[in-house]
Amino acid sequence: MRQRRVKDLDIRLDKLKHLYVTEPKSKKGLWKDLFEELRQDRKERRIFLEIGCGKGSFIRELAKRYPEDNFIAIEAQPSVILMAMEKANSDKLDNLIFIQDHIKDIRDYFENGEISGIYLNFSDPWHKKRHAKRRLTHRKFLDRYREIMGQGFIKMKTDNDNLFNFTIDELSDVSEKLDMKIVSFTRDLHISPYSEGNIMTEYESKFSSRGKNINYVNISVGGHKINEDSVRER
């Protein structure tokens, strides 16, 4: 989708330097230290990641609900992440930071076991078959997520039924090899037991208001035990 031009984009981004990392690859293995500096404490805190945060409504609400944890939001489009960061700045959140980048290999940014959970909300479905390897739930990406988590979870939501079917097929093929297990699964999230505690994204609100079903899957990674809070967002 083509993004509209934003007036004074660079100036507005510069005012939010405290919320994003300009050289994120240099923080590989050091994200814990960065959050300790931001929060001015040395408590052990888990780090959760949203890949493709859009305007940030999901990740901001997540950070508000779980102030004991830390969150990183990734978004490629400068004009979009600007809106997310301006809202986060108004919320005065100290447990959320942003990365503005087109990420090719997530392992360039995070060390093995550094992340405790990954959220994939309404990712680009890459409709054409020849582009399947670009889908964020292709086995190539699943393998990389496994490396940066060790143990944890992947939660995915999408309005695209074909992408969801593709995701389930990929998981079926590699679940044993990657030690991944589907814990929760539904093709209509909002009428399922897993709707409790659900945080809607901007896309989700739009599609559900039109009557579109929302697909959802919660995946345990590396033998991570997901308790009854699995119906919630963390």
User: Regions with pLDDT < 50 over 5+ consecutive residues?
Assistant: none
Radius of gyration, in Å, reads: 17 Å
Give the strand content.
Answer: 15-25%
CATH superfamily: Vaccinia Virus protein VP39
The N- and C-terminal alpha carbons lie at a distance of 29 Å
Number of helices: 7
| Total beta-strand segments | 7
The H-and-E topology, N to C, reads as HHEHEHEEHEHEHE
Number of structural units classed as domains:
1
Biggest sheet strand line-up: 3-2-1-4-5-7-6
Average pLDDT works out at: 93
CATH fold-type name: Rossmann fold
Name of the level-1 CATH class: Alpha Beta
Describe the structure.
α4 links the parallel β2 (70-75) and β3 (96-100). The chain has one domain (27-231): Rossmann fold (3-Layer(aba) Sandwich). It starts with 8 loop residues before the first helix and ends in a 13-residue tail after the last strand. It has a 7-stranded mixed β-sheet with strand order 3-2-1-4-5-7-6, sandwiched between helices. The chain has helices at residues 9-14, 31-39, 57-65, 78-91, 139-149, 161-178, 202-209; strands at 47-51, 70-75, 96-100, 117-121, 152-158, 180-186, 215-221. 32% of the residues lie in helices and 18% in strands. The model has no long low-confidence stretch (mean pLDDT 93). The protein is α/β, with parallel strands linked by helices and 234 residues long. The protein contains 7 helices and 7 strands, in the order ααβαβαββαβαβαβ. The protein is globular, with a radius of gyration of 17 Å.
